[in-house]
Amino acid sequence: MRLTHFFTFLIAIHISICCSKYPKEIPKGFSFEIIDDIDSYNSINGSFTRKAINDKFLDTIVVYTLSQKDKEEIYKVLIENDVLSIPKYFECASNAQFMIPSFNTTLKVQINGIKQEIKFDTSCFPKKDAGAANRFDNIVKYIRAKLHSQKIIQKLPKTKMRLM
Question: pTM for the full model?
Fold first, then answer.
C-alpha cells in the first residue's frame, strides 16, 4: 500500500515539475509542424500535404485550420508528454534490432519562444531512451489521429508511393 502511495507521489511530482515550465494556456506564437514520409501538416499556415497522390507522383495540398479546441487538445498532449525534454534524435539501444523499411517523422514545435525539432526513424527498435521514444509516439499518434479524422483530409486520394 505504501509503495502505491509512493509511486502516486512521484508521478504527481513529475507532472508538477515537467508541466510547470509550460504556460497553462496556449502561448502566443504556439505552432507545430509534423512531417513524415507521406503526410505533413504545418499549423502556422494550415497546409496539409500528401505526397505522390497520382501516377505522376504529384503532391496535393489542402488548407485546414485546426479549431481552437483542437489546438488546445494538441497543446495539452505536448505538455503532458514534456515535448521540450524529448531529445532531438534517437539512438538505437545496444540490443536493437534493425528494420527495413524504415520510416521518418519530424516534429517541430514552438512553445513560449522555444523551438524544438525532433527527428525519429523506425530503423531500429528499441531506442536507447525508450521513455522519450514512447512520449514522442504518443504525441505523433494523437496529432495524426486528430488530423486524419477531418473530412477534408479523409477525402484526399491515397498516396501512390510504394514503401518497401
Answer: 0.82
